[in-house]
Amino acid sequence: MKIMYPGSFDPITLGHIDLIERCAKMFDEVEIAILENDSKSATFSVEERLEMIRESISKWSNVRVSAGSGLAVEYAKQINCSVLLRGIRAVMDYEYELQVATANRVLDKDVETLFLVASPKYSYVSSSLARTIARYGGDLKEFVPDHVAVKLREKFSK
Ligand code: ADP
Asked: Does pTM surpass 0.85?
């Protein structure tokens, strides 16, 4: 069975990677889908995000990444997938995720959303926090892989 992990991944963090690793053990295939988020304007281009994700997932043969636009349920159908993966770090995530998962269910009742709870080690990690730390020159090693830290520093030194 295949699961799709939709998100902004702006950029991919150790928290995302932890979820991907856990899912790669449970599912035959994991497809990460970079989908534009209406309410967030991205720091990295889709191409930059694809490249950072590709480098982060190279050790798993059953994980791939693609990018699309539009609704997650529509994109899932396009790639022949009927399960979506989302992560929950805190109650704040839960409220938003519950609304999105319910809306997706109304849009397509055949698409299920599976939630994984963040590992305690990464429950405070987010892309936006990683961007803020990079902007002020802080240590990124507990937030993103080294190759992503390099890209973040490059981006904010301009
Ligand atoms: P979006 O803009 O769609 O929320 P994100 O890239 O911010 O995209 O997040 C994608 C998904 O990954 C969301 O469900 C989010 O809750 C989850 N996620 C993000 N960071 C973590 C983390 N540290 N641990 C577990 N899940 C996470």
From this structure: yes
